């Protein structure tokens, strides 16, 4: 128990350090962006007086360390700043875009876990036989197809040629749950590669675990094959799979830009693209911090779960 508490404490301290590093890195990178936001907001033929007024209103005339301190204090209070282009709070942009992205992520993970783990266990049970070869070949082939190409293919066949599904979410706004047909194609594209990587990880972990000495000892004691597979071998195979699942959830929540752009879904990825196009630095900074913190938290949770499942593995940071 003391070893587990020590592990948790180390991971929490590491998570805090990583979060601080994310905030500093995001501010430094946005400061290094080329161009001047005040000039961009002033129009095509900016007047020097107008540029100076905008710089003063945006506090761009203040030293960088002062702006960093004010921004960091605001983040601690949950204040991400104000959009330069619309004057709306950045937090409102994030909350508006988080709903569609969270819905896509939740649906994808709900299908990913049973399909990915089920295919991995099935392939491991039939190692070297027809089922294993079919699953391995199919997952490798699907993983090799880029998401954008797969998305275009699905739209061309299922939406435009057959007319079974809407090609995009245009006209549905953020009420995607009320129009489930518009979610089918995006979820299929989002599932394609994570299912392949997760099932292959589970397969490899199960095969290694089933070949381990403690599983052989369990067989000698007369323990049934099903109990060996699901009670002894599967927990060890889950450790790397849980970390892969956390990375997948992180990828889904951090704005799946290609899929959202292809299917015109107003999620975080679309918000980020619009903010970059408009050079709306506070929105870009706020989204980058949210994405960074989500990554830190999800990987921290995955490390703790993996350590609990297979403490012998010595889960790496």
If you had to describe this structure to a student in words, what would you say it looks like?
This protein has helices at 2-31, 37-42, 48-57, 64-76, 90-125, 130-143, 147-161, 181-210, 213-220, 225-253, 257-262, 268-277, 281-309. With 317 residues, it is mostly helical. Helix 5 (90-125) crosses helix 8 and helix 5 (90-125) packs parallel to helix 13. The protein is flat.
Which oligomerization state do the chains in this entry correspond to? single chain
Structural class: mainly alpha
Counted beta strands:
0
Mean pLDDT across all amino acids? 79
Helical proportion? over 70%
What does the radius of gyration come to? 24 Å
Q: How many separate helices?
A: 13
- Tell me the strand percentage band: under 5%
Largest sheet: none
The residue ranges in which pLDDT falls below 50 over 5 or more consecutive positions are: 312-317
- Rounded to the nearest angstrom, the distance between the terminal CA atoms is 20 Å
Morphology: flat
Q: Can you write the helix and strand succession as a string? A: HHHHHHHHHHHHH
Write the layout of secondary structure elements.
Blueprint: H1 2-31, H2 37-42, H3 48-57, H4 64-76, H5 90-125, H6 130-143, H7 147-161, H8 181-210, H9 213-220, H10 225-253, H11 257-262, H12 268-277, H13 281-309
Helix pairs in contact: 1-13, 5-6, 5-8, 5-10, 5-12, 5-13, 6-8, 7-8, 8-10, 10-13, 12-13
A few lines on this structure:
It is built from 13 helices and no strands.
